[in-house]
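> call design_seq(struct)
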C-alpha cells in the first residue's frame, strides 16, 4: 500500500508548490485513518530489525495459504463465502476501533494474500444494512468468476436498488 504515494498512483493534490508539501497534502487527503494506520504498520514491519521477525515469517504463511488455495482449486472452480463476518456497519460507526476495522476484512485477507481474483455481491439485508458474499477463483480466472457472479446475481434475482429501498422502508 505504501506505493500509492499520490505521485504515480492514486489521488494527487495539485495545489502544493513544493514536492514535500504535495506528498503531505496528498497523503492527508487521499487516505483515511484506517489506510494510514495499515501503511504505518506495514512500514514498521519492514523496517530494519523487524524484517526477519515479521516479513519473512509473513511470506512463509502467505506461501502456505497460497498452497492451500491451490489444492482447493484442484477440485473446485470457485469458492463462495461471506465477505465479512458481519453485515456492513453504519458509516463512521467503527472507525475509532482498529480491531473492529481489521476484523471486518478478515474474510477477504486470505484471498488477498494468495493473489486470487474475487468479487463481492450483496445477497441480502439485515436491519437495513447489506450482507455480502464473496466469490473467489484461481489466479487468472477473472472471466469465469465474473460469469459466475452474474449467474448467481440472476439466480438470486437481486436488484440492488430494490434491496436497499425495501430495507429503508422496513426500517422507517
Amino acid at each position: 500500500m505504501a506505493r500509492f504515494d499520490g505521485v504515480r498512483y492514486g489521488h494527487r493534490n495539485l495545489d502544493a508548490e513544493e514536492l514535500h508539501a504535495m506528498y503531505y497534502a496528498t497523503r492527508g487527503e487521499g487516505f483515511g485513518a484506517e489506510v494510514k494506520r495499515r501503511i504505518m504498520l506495514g512500514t514498521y514491519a519492514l523496517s530494519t530489525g523487524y524484517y526477519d521477525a515479521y516479513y519473512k515469517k509473513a511470506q512463509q504463511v502467505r506461501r502456505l495459504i497460497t498452497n492451500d488455495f491451490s489444492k482447493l482449486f484442484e477440485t473446485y472452480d470457485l469458492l463462495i463465502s461471506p465477505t465479512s463476518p458481519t453485515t456492513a456497519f453504519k458509516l463512521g460507526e467503527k472507525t475509532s476501533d482498529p480491531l473492529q476495522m481489521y476484523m471486518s476484512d478478515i474474510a477477504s485477507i486470505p484471498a488477498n494474500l494468495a493473489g486470487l481474483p474475487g468479487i463481492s455481491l450483496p445477497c441480502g439485508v439485515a436491519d437495513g444494512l447489506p450482507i455480502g458474499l464473496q466469490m473467489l477463483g484461481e489466479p487468472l480466472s477473472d472471466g469465469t468468476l465474473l460469469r459466475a457472479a452474474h449467474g448467481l446475481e440472476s439466480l438470486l434475482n437481486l436488484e440492488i436498488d430494490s434491496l436497499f429501498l425495501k430495507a429503508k422502508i422496513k426500517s422507517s
